[in-house]
Structure formats: C-alpha cells, structure tokens
Amino acid sequence: MIGVDVGGGDRLALAVLVQYRMATTEQMHWVIAPGVRIEQTRRRLARLREEGLIERITLPQAGRRRVWFPTAYGVKVACEWPELRERRPSRTASDPTAVRLGIGHGLTVTETGLAFLQDARRRGDVCRPLDWMTEVHHPIGNAHAVIPDALLYYRRGPVDGDSGSMLRAFVEVDRATMGPERLAAKLTSYARLHAYVPTRPGRRPTMQEPGVEAWKRRYPVFPRLLFVLDGTGPVGVENRISALRAATRELALYAFLRDVPVLVAPLTDLLQAGPSAPVWRPVQAPGSRVPWDLSRDV
User: How far, rounded to the nearest angstrom, does the alpha carbon of residue 30 sit from its chain's CA centroid?
Assistant: First the structure.
C-alpha cells in the first residue's frame, strides 16, 4: 500500500509559506516540524527551492538569517489544493522586492501566529499551522474592505466539564509605524464590517426580508479583535492603548463594542508568558488584565 503521507511535509511547508507569506528557517521549523531536528527542515526548504516553489532572501545582519517566501509558481500550485482554494494571496506575495521591504512587519505577524500555535500545543488545544490565515479579504462596500493582518481559528480543549469551544480572532499587528490615532481608526473599520449588509441589485431590505450582515455568511459569531503591539517601549504602548481607549467613546462604535471583545497586548508579553496568560487589556477597561480566550465563541 502506498503511504498516503508521501510528500505531506513538503506540501505543508509550501502551504504555510503561501498562507503566512514569509518566515525564517527557524520559524518554519517550529511551525511545521518541531519534533524533528532543524536540519530536516533546512533540507526540506532547500528541496522546495530547487523545485522552483519557494525562494529566499538572506538578511545582512549578523547570523545572515534566511527569509523564505513562495514563488509565483508555488502560489499557483498551492492554491489548487482544497485547504487553500479559497485563499487570495496578495499579488506581491512572490515579489522579492515587496518581500524585502515588508520583512519587518511580515516576520512579526508570523512570530505572533507561532506564539498562538506553540501555546495551543502546550495546553493541549487545537490550533494547526493553517489555522493562522493572513490578509483575509472582507468587503464592506464601495470597493472598500477590511483586511486583518491575520485571522485565527483556535479550538480550546474541555474546560469545567464542557467539550471545548471554537474561538476566532481578527489579529492586528502594529509595529508603531503609524500614529496612535491611525491605529485607533481601525476600530471604525471593524465596526463597519460588523454592521455591513450587502445589497443585491434591484432589491432593498424590507421588514419582511431584512438584510443579513455579510460576516454572518462566514462566522457564527463575529471574531474578537486582538491588537498586538511591537516596535515601541512601555510609553509608546501606553500611548497607543490610550488612543484605542479614547476611540471607544464614539457613539458609532457602541453596538460593535457591546458585541465584540477588543483586547490589546504587547508582543513581548505574548512571547514571555504565552497568549493564554492574562496579558491582554480590554480597550474599554485598560486597567484590567485578562486571557484572550476568556469569553467563548461557538
């Protein structure tokens, strides 16, 4: 009998790079194969590069780390697979210049996803490599869209006698490259997504046939919103949290904030304590510290 997992490791590695957009050798190792020696991961990546499916950039810093990304051919191959068929990778996902210019943010997003993945492994929860999806497109009308840095799917194990629950989160990774007010403006974008009801040509919602919010076609519950802060010290973190807190006073955000948990945490805290630790601060009560999975999805 032919082993059904022949090439499965190569397939996962390519799928991860297409979905995550970029990763260092070490990040790839911890995402796809933490139970083997890293030399095996290096050989796998080298093989995929020889086949024209992925490429790399070598960083000039000490250690000359390699950053891997999919080629246009690799994206084309992987997006034919069922697990990635609904994905719409960015047009620049395979462009070496775009990858080089976006390395700081891109690798931080990958590091954030890896933190959730490793935390789930430690806790016995379910969060597989492809449960971290970058840049998922969510239209909000008039050619505009909300595109979170990542969408996280996470199944928590049994707690207090229940059978576990599925959690979902939109994740925004901020490296202090924009002002605090521009970061806070993202709350308005997510509130628009929360309220957006698409219209069909020639038809308007009525009392008998009210419109349905677009997000309900994808999710049974609107994903919680997590802001992960990096690239700034304690003062910068507090300034950004204060801007988010001030934005929550807008009346237009009332329904969104009533229904959707919005939490913020520094990346350093996630890496040191794990995302499940009480390191998250609710934007409406930033003096508190809570776990990100405190409330349940279904």
Answer: 17
267: Cα separation from own chain's centroid: 13
> Residue 146's beta-bridge partner residues?
138
Residue written as token pair 């609107």: 222
How far apart (Å, rounded) are the C-alpha atoms in residues 134 and 102?
A: 14
Rg (CA), the chain: 20
Q: Which amino acid is at 254?
A: Y
Following CA atoms 225, 226, 232, 233 in sequence, which dihedral angle do they give, to the nearest 10 degrees? 120
Lowest-confidence region among 1-5, 12-16, 177-181, 183-187: 1-5
Spatial separation of the C-alpha atoms in residues 28 and 43, rounded to whole Å: 12
**Pairing state between β 281-282 and 132-134:** unpaired
pLDDT at 102: 92
- Which residue type does 103 have? I
Per-residue confidence (pLDDT) for residue 165, from 0 to 100 = 85
Q: Examine the pLDDT at 7 and tell me if it is beyond 60.
A: yes
Helices 38-50, 25-32: inter-axial angle, 10-degree rounding = 110
- pLDDT tens-digit map of 58-77: 988 757 789 999 999 999 99
In the predicted structure, residue 161 carries a pLDDT above the cut 60? no
Distances in Å between the Cα of 266 and the Cα atoms of 26, 81, 106, 114, 144 are 22, 35, 17, 15, 29
The closest alpha carbon to 217, from 189, 196, 232, 234, belongs to 196
Distance CA 195, CA 213 (A): 6
